[in-house]
Description:
- There is one protein chain.
- By secondary structure, this protein is of the alpha/beta class.
- The chain has helices at residues 62-72, 93-104, 107-122, 142-152, 195-208, 238-257; strands at 20-29, 32-41, 48-54, 77-80, 130-140, 159-163, 181-187, 212-217, 230-231, 234-235.
- The protein has one domain: Rossmann fold (3-Layer(aba) Sandwich), CATH 3.40.50.1820.
- The protein has an 8-stranded mixed beta sheet, with helices on both faces.
Amino acid sequence: MRSLLPLCFLLATGLAQAAIVEKTVEYKVGDTVLSSTLVYDDSVKTARPGLVLVPNWMGAGASAVAKAKQIAGSKYVILVADVYGKDLRPADAQEAGKAATAMYADRPALRARAAAALAQLKAQADSSPLDSTRLGAIGFCFGGATVLEMARDGVELAGVVSFHGNLSTDLPAAKGALKTSLLVQNGADDTYVPAEQIAGFQQEMTAAGADWQFVNYAGAVHCFAEPDANSPGCTYHERSARRAFRLMDDFFVERFSAP
């Protein structure tokens, strides 16, 4: 069975022996009840950075929580962000497509729900080993697009990492709006993110004066960091995933140590 992350990202004793806490965090944005999940390793008491993790278009279900547990290890406290609503957990790609399309059509609402997730993460500082002065956000596919919307909206974070996320927006960043550094990781053969979209994103970021990096992975398509992805154009690519997670960790080491 393929693991989600290389073993070097896991505790030496293995996650099975770690005290992984999984805590439901419910809150409202407008009339919508959102149900996110906080995860961290409680066997290590040292305060550590926090990440908002926005899942792919399947939403904040069990698969996303399992992924967050493996990414968190002893390095991060992670909040798996619900941006659809407590009662919406897509059962298949068709339902997920409808849910994601609805959020893309209302980016102010998407941004508000992502910002609320960040606020909820910050609020966990007194009850978890979270260092609330060191916060970032990561996202996969739809989630990658969402964390880029957070950055465009001027959310103050140490860094944002997008894994194979859509790069287009109908609310491009204004000059000077971005208050976080960006690491954008893309499959070089991703047909869902065409060259013109990449060029447009890079032009947008440059015009906004953003601190951004864009990395293409040879041989990788959409979903390259999702171990359970196995459909045409959306396929796991172990080599690229391994490199992408290592680069993510290196990026956050730098960003969390920056003044």
